[in-house]
Structures are given as structure tokens and as C-alpha cells.
Amino acid sequence: MAGEKAIEIRGLHFSYPDGNAALCGVDLEVACGESVGLIGCNGAGKSTLLLHLNGILRGSTPVRILGVEVSGKTLPLIRARVGMIFQDPDNQLFMPTVADDVGFGPVNMGMSTEEVDREVARALSQVDMLGFEQRSPHHMSIGEKKRVSIATVLSMSPEILALDEPSSNLDPRHRRDLIQLLNSLKLTKIISTHDLDFVRSTCDRVAVMDKGKITAIGSAPEILGDQSLLEAAGIVC
Amino acid sequence: MNHSFIDEHSNIDSPLSRLDPRVKVIGFLLLVTCIALAGRDFFRAYLFYSIIVVLLALVSRIPPGHILKRSAVIAPFLIVMAAFVPFMPGGDPVLSFGFAPLEFTVSRTGLQLFSSLAIKSFLSLTALIVLTASTPFARLLKALQDLRVPLIIIMVLSFMYRYIFIIEDEFMKMKQARDSRMTRQTGLLHFRSLANLVGVLFIRAYERSESVYMAMCSRGFRGEIIVQQEHLRLQYQDLAFLALMVLSLSGIQWFCFYGQPGG
């Protein structure tokens, strides 16, 4: 399916119930297999935009994922295709053991016990966390929790990974390991962050968000090399 | 931050920790039921039950200090119970105080009732502590699920186990932040800021629950908990444990109720 659009967003507006307009006309297209970095300062609307990708939030115009419109009816399909990894692994990991957590998605997809076990083992081996099945997330380091968080969506075999601030709270070594892990996953990725080095090492294209809009989009070297653009968006000073 | 946790010693390898969790739950519940139903004047029965509880605790190889520390939580309840003893009716008066019309009498029956309640609750609690401390919590939940405990209760327990320490962490961090800025600890101000902390903690817990719910929805949760069937298999030692438990409990019942003249 070369050339197919993984993500298509046109003129998306969204306001929170308290009236705060978080997205004011976002246009974004991501091709299959591409890695896109979403950079912007706090409150620019990055996380809100990510939450639209799997229908947790729904704004003015529908989002299309792999050609399918996100609507109430297509939610189960969309959520199996878009793996959403939240910033705080303590929110991402909510089951008592790692195996239960990684198996949560596959169980909801209606897989049999054998299939679930197989997917759990596959996902944990992809993030190099085999042997942690019976551990409780409470007793793991933040780097380990991050890896398991990624496994919890890989077990659902998604086609798109959406990561919200993946490098926050990571020490340099765990951050480097995470970059290697993400680069080894051949999926469409959209990564929201304000860690510019992280974007440089993981993304082909970069979109700059400011005040609910995408103000610039281009190849990673082009955008990250444009000092005045980054300053205007408040990402560097 | 590190906390002690419910199943801190569950990785200790012991005959008790190797048992099937379902068998353990049934065996311990039988024991607790028998303790709860024992007549209040059968102190001999309590002696036997305490022997069983002590034996289980020894077999579990859990440090006795841990068990005793945990069972100390019962103390406040006992104090409340003790406060009501003077109001219990009937029996020979042992002690009375106050003046008519406000005269309180502590009767023999009242004291007996109190001591039997105290022994019962202490023994039951200690037995359950041995059970929970010797079983990894996730396995305990699987056992309850297999024993057809409603899923909603299991989910509540499971979330409690997952988040209680995170919430505690948040509280500790907020408290440290407050203490770092408090130069004087005057009574009223202290309590007011503590109340604020608790309030903020509630809001944070609520907001976290929203985030967790979003994470669940993202992974295909549609309001219905789907459980995976576990394949637990009973072993000989599981059946032996259950048989031993049933035999000794019915032995105690028989001995205390029929074995003694006038018992």
C-alpha cells in the first residue's frame, strides 16, 4: 500500500468543554511508514491532536486513518491500528502484572488465550523485556516501564504508533535505548515532544505546532535548522 | 520512593506459597469461618485454632515480625469495642462505676463477649495476613476470579493494588514540598494545609483515573471486562492441604462440641 495516507487531517478544530480552543484548524498528512515529529511548546495542542488519532477526542472534522474515517462505528478497528502510548507509564500500565497489561489489548480484540500468550511474548521480545511477565509495574524503573508501555500496544499489531513525550523523565542511557528501539520498529510513527535531539534521531519529517495550529512542516534537518522558526514557536530561546 | 507492599514476602519459597491459590483461599476461608462461628465460651477451641494459625504462619516462612506488625492494625477496633463493654446487658456484675441513674456495670458476660470477639478478630486477621502475604497479589486475584467472585470486585482490587502506592507517592511528594516551605508548624495552619493536601490528592486521583480510562479505551476497552481463562491445575499437595484443613477443623468442632462432657 505504498503512497497510501496513514493519517489525513483537514481543518480540524477542537475546543475543550471549558471553552479552551486547543486546535484551531489543523491540517496534517502522514504517509505510511513515515516518522513524523510533532514539536511545540507546552499547551500548543500536541497531545490533544494525538488523542484525535484514535478517536478518544473527536473534533469538527473527521480524521482519516489508513483511509478509514474515525467514527463511533470504526473505533474498534481504529484503536487496533493506532497504538497510543501516553506520557506517564503509570497511566499506560494499569494491570497488576506486565503479562496482564500487554495482553489487555489482544484480549479486548477477542483473541484466544493461546493467541494472547503468543502476542504477549512477541511484543515483550520486540522491546527486549522477556522474563518480566509476572512483575508488577510498581517495582520497575521508568525505562523498563516505558519499554513495557510500548509492548502494550505492539501486542495489538498496530500500523501506526502515536507517542506522547516518550523521552520525558528518561536518563541519557534509557533515552538512547528508546531511540534505538523506536528506529527498529518499522511502523508509521508520530511522536509529540519538545526534545529536539530526540526528534532529530527518530523522525524523517517534523511539524511545528503553535497555539493549536501547525505553523510549519518539512524535513527534519530543514525545520530543526531554522532557528528563527523554532524561536517564534517558543521551542528554543 | 519505595514502600512495603501487600505481598512483600510472596516470593519466599515455602510449602504454603507453592500451593494452588484457589485451594489456599478456600482453606483459609474455612478456617476463618470456623473461628468466627466458634461459641464464645469455648476457649479450648480458640487454643486449637491459634495452634493452626501459628502452624500456618511457621510453614509460610514469613518473618513473624511482619505478621505481628500487620495484625496490629486491629488495635483501634478493639479499643472501640472495649468502650462498649460496660453497656452490654446481663450476667453477673464484675465491676460497676458511676452513680445512679448513670451507673455502668461491667458484667462477666460482657467481658467474655469482648475477649472472645478480640481473640476471634485477631486470629481471623492473622490467618488472612498469612494468606495474602504468602500469595502474589495477581495470583490471588486469579484465584478469586476462578472462584466466581464478581469481576467488578476483582477489577476494583486490581486497580487498588496497582495505584495505591502511586497515590501514596504523590502524597509523600506533596507533603515534602509543603514541609520544605513550612518554617513554623503551628497547630491550626498545619491542619489546614494538610486538609488542602488531601483535597488536591483527591483531584489528582480523579484526574489520573480519567487518564487511565483513556489509556484503557485506546487499547480497545469498551466498558466490558473480558477475562482470560487461566489454566491452573490442582496438584496432590493442594488436595492434601485441603484435606488436612477440613479434617483438623472438623476434628476441633467435634472435640469441642461433643467430645467433652457437658461441652
Describe this structure in words.
The complex is a heterodimer of chains A (237) and B (263). With 237 residues, chain A is α/β, with parallel strands linked by helices. Helix content of chain A is 37%, strand content 25%. Chain A contains ten helices and ten strands. In chain A, α4 packs across α5, α4 packs parallel to α6 and α5 crosses α6. The mean pLDDT of chain A is 92. Chain B folds into two domains: 166 residues, no CATH class; 81 residues, no CATH class. The interface between A and B is medium-sized, with 36 and 29 residues.
Task: Give keywords.
heterodimer; A: 237 residues; alpha/beta; six-stranded mixed β-sheet; four-stranded antiparallel β-sheet; 10 helices; globular; B: 263 residues; mainly alpha; 2 domains; two-stranded antiparallel sheet; 9 helices; 2 strands; 5% strand
Layout of secondary structure:
The complex is a heterodimer of chains A (237) and B (263).
Chain A: E1 5-15, E2 21-31, E3 35-39, H1 46-53, E4 64-65, E5 68-69, H2 75-81, E6 82-85, H3 89-92, H4 98-108, H5 113-126, H6 142-154, E7 160-164, H7 172-184, E8 188-193, H8 196-202, E9 205-210, E10 213-219, H9 220-224, H10 227-232
Parallel strand pairs in A: 3-8, 3-9, 6-7, 7-8
Antiparallel strand pairs in A: 1-2, 1-4, 4-5, 9-10
Helix pairs in contact in A: 4-5, 4-6, 5-6
Chain B: H1 21-37, H2 43-60, H3 64-71, H4 75-84, E1 93-99, E2 102-107, H5 108-133, H6 137-146, H7 151-181, H8 187-218, H9 236-257
Antiparallel strand pairs in B: 1-2
Helix pairs in contact in B: 1-5, 1-6, 1-9, 2-5, 2-9, 3-5, 6-7, 7-8
